[in-house]
Specification:
Chain B: It is a multi-pass membrane protein. The complex is a heterotrimer of chains A (about 375), B (about 425) and C (about 375). Chain A is α/β, with parallel strands linked by helices and about 375 residues long. Chain A has 17 helices and 11 strands. Chain C folds into 2 domains: about 250 residues, 3-Layer(aba) Sandwich (Rossmann fold), CATH 3.40.50; about 120 residues, RNA polymerase II/Efflux pump adaptor protein, barrel-sandwich hybrid domain (OB fold (Dihydrolipoamide Acetyltransferase, E2P), Beta Barrel), CATH 2.40.50. Chain C has a 6-stranded mixed sheet with strand order 6-7-8-3-9-10, with helices on both faces. The chains are: A alpha/beta (about 375), B mainly alpha (about 425), C alpha+beta (about 375). Chains in contact: A-B, B-C.
Chain lengths: ~375, ~425, ~375
Amino acid sequence: MKTLKTYRVIKGTGLAVAGISALAMAVGAQAATLNIVSWGGAYSMSQHEAYDKPWMEKTGDEIVNIDRSGNALAGLRAQSQAGNVTWDLVDMLPADAMIACAEGLIEPLEHDELLADAPDGTPASEDFVEGGLGDCFVASIVYSNIVAFNSDMFPADEQPSTIEDVFDLENYPGKRALLRKPINNMEWALIADGVERDEVYAMLETEEGVQRAFAKLDTIKDEVIWWEEGAQPPQLLADQEVAFASAYNGRIFNAMVTEDQPFEILWDAQVFELDGWVVPTGKLDKVKDYLHFATDTQRLADQAQYISYGPARLSSSELVSTHAETGIEMTPHMPTHEPNFATALQKDDLFWADYNDELTQRFNAWLSQ
Amino acid sequence: MSESPAAPLRTADGVPLKVSLRRAVRRSKIKALLLVAPLLTFLIIAFVMPLFEMLWRSVDNPEVSTHLSRTVAALEGWNGESLPDETTFAALAEDLREGQQARNLGLLSSRLNYEKSGMRSTISRTARRIGTLEPPYREALIEVNDTWGELDTWKLIQRETSPYTMSYYLAAIDRQLSPDGEIITVPEHMQIHATLFWRTLWMSAVITGLTLLLGYPVAFLLASLPARHSNLLMILVLLPFWTSLLVRTTTWIAILQSQGVLNDVMVALGIIADEARWQMIHNKMGTIIAMTHILLPFMILPLYSVMKTIPPSYMRAARSLGGKPFLSFRRVYFPLTIPGIAAGGILVFILSIGYYITPALVGGQSGRFITNYIAYHMQTSLNWGLAAAIASILLFVVIICYLVFNRLIGVDKVKLG
Amino acid sequence: MQQILDRDEEVAAQADSSDCFVRFIDVQKSYDGVELVVKGFNLDVRHGEFVTLLGPSGSGKTTCLMMMAGFETPTHGQILLKGEPINDLPPHKRGIGMVFQNYALFPHMTVAENLAFPLEVRHLSKDEIQRKVDRALAMVRLEDFGARRPAQLSGGQQQRVALARALVFEPDLVLMDEPLGALDKNLREEMQYEIKRIHASLGVTMIYVTHDQTEALTMSDRIAVFNDGVVQQLATPDTLYEAPENAFVASFIGENNRLLGEVVERQGERCQVRLDSGETVTATPVACGEVGTRTTLSLRPERVAIFDHSRQDELDNCFRGEVLEVIYLGDHLRTRLRVCGNDDFILKTPNAKGHSALKPGQGVEVGWSWRDCRALDA
């Protein structure tokens, strides 16, 4: 905490964060109200259905959802520096959690003490997927960054099947929609260029590797529409503005199942990633019961009824059933489903913690060339 | 002046005139002060303090000196030619151990990572294993992470011991300090800010020019029409003010996008082919169109307020003296509107270089402003020092504009209707 | 006096001919299509003449001037300049000098630049411009002010610059729109003579608009009295004063005693009017109707005399009155009386030697000649 005190307290800086958190404080002033920060949209809905509703029924607590996970780290910093933390529980990416943890913004967690055992008695520390438990982090889902395509835009016998096809303008013409960030794109570029999966990040640490990735991206740069909001790729695919689009697999699943869109997911070279909970410093006592409940085996399995993200607990997989709305079997749509998972790449959070600033600047410079 | 100290002027009851005057004025001064006090307080808290906070942050550099205090002390006098000695490594190990216990190494590692990618994981990995390390620390630390064996790492730490740094400003103009402390340009593939500054400035200039071109005739009409017509026109001018910025901007998206109204109309009329729809948004054009529209009133109002004070008889006089309409306008009317042009121009230009939402929504990649990078560094990369440095440079540009304007035209000429 | 009158009749005769300099023919103007601001204006101005359009504000006089200058278009009728219709001629092609009420000197130019403007747009050579500007400055006695800005000049100096600028390009016609309205009284009188002097020396035609009757009477060859969009009377200053043709002109120009009554008898150049208060007055019928119609009698205060038996033949109207108030005005006395039921009957008497002042409340007998008493419209 010494660190934070050496910084002078910001009062009334132009940060919108402060205003929004003040608002959140006003809303959540009562004792049994939990201010939970998440991503909004379909994802928050699935959390609401799987965790919040049963919890509210059980305890009578009120849960306020705040859609601020997109800037969760900045929000935590600002609240901490202003000396007024109003968020009780935050859904964030493990890379951000690592930084927040190092800055002392969030609580270190004793996993076996805080979290429920698996139904068969396996302790929590052994029941999560690899990397699912960080110093200050508990994963709840495995989601995946994939490339999807609109099957109507290719002849039935010439459907794309690998990540190389995304970079093959000759055989698979059309626009591509990609996330306007270096993350995923750099990995895919190298894999499509023939780099082995387990060498991708080592390669990206070298100047040669970065140049190789950009060179590969250069081959399709003119055909790329860059997206920034998760809702854009399914829309662009549906409008046939693009042939391929990188996306979060849950969004594509949603469009395929509930809107009946002719989309297909290229599971090849999916970059999977975890997402889960962190507890802002000083809030552990307030939220530990909820955290225990929301991360147990059944709750994580339940969440898969609403969105096609894999549960982060190994013991939940067997309990994954059918889609709540349409009743289709969920397992084949999960990133962790065996055939889908064969060529998967796990996002290296440590690499991106080190190189994101530099590569983002370089990526932006590349874009504006 | 003429009064001597021996015999100051006195009022009828013998009080010195100056004392009496001061007493009489004091009450009205206090009253005036009380009247402005709420706004003054508000401005100090909400404007002046954050401004200095920002300027402070752009040079503030406490991380290394605070969190590596022992290392910094041990590095004093280090020659920088070979790796530091064991004492320094031991000091580093001690600093990291303390930092790991207090869990406050995050800001340090972020700070060093700005200067040298990889420092974040170097510090976090080393810190995680610090408990298991045994002397001699020099070998042990290099064993954990060979970054500690690089001379540049130590040069960097030594350089950043100063509580103030220029590196944010350097980064803001695509420069950096080499390990040897020289200012060098960052590699071309990393250059982004200088380009954006120039783009922001010239696009703002284009937007200012367009608002002038479109606003001048409107302001002229406003100033010369009889009141009942000009009131209606004024409402039309002000209408954009009453509509939310976001609504206006998204309306432009609906109109200009490739499947949008304008393209549809042109395709329907056969002006362009369906495959060759114009890309008018998510590029520079989108930013320029939307911002010209949004900023137009800021040009029209100062122009109008100046034009309103120009009696119609000047133009009539010029015409009756034999001036053709355009010549009369150029020689007589136009010179008289220059204060309005300057006021509107400076206003639109300054607002424009600070715009952020509109370029973010309709600018795509090529129509982005430097302000979008301030937001990016505030919210996403969380490099607030760099955000503050860019914002301070922008502030500096605005102040220069203001000073030039004040020198040429005089700020007292600015009126807003 | 008689001589001047003769000359003016001659002038009027000439103006009727077709080669007159400026001519308004049945000009009408309406701004809103509902109301006429100018209703059928006819005017002929001879070359070199100084004509004033006089009237209260809103009477249409300025509108006529603006139509002449080309800033307003007549809704109906024609304006001729040197015999040519100019309705469709833009202002800058008319070659008419104009002096505006607020002078309209260009504030961003020096005095010399202001004066040079009309010459530059006519593409005169630099030397010639210089020469003409210097001459114009000398004419208005501002030789040393060429380098100043208008804002650095006094009101009177600005006025002279405006005059010089309107004349510097040697127009045949100069229009002036209340040019002296912003000046104080002394300066205004000085400028009246100045303008008169310049007019005389240059022989330029001037049309002058004012609402100040003294100004109009001092400066003009002829005056057109405006009211309600119509010219009430167009005549020389003395004719307007001595022989107003209607009640408006009589009351607008100079002071005027009004007596209301009904015509009871008309015989040749006299008529008998029975006042509302019962008395019968002999008057000159000017604009009154037949027997039985109402009329306003107009009588100048200085033409009323205190009854004196030596002038008995002359003063054919004689009535008793009562002094209500006496005001001493130095060169003359102004006495307010009650005569024929009128409490505002004014009597102006010169402050002649040995003249005995009247006292309020005192009874007095006053009289006037039938020639001075004009029976006008009701």
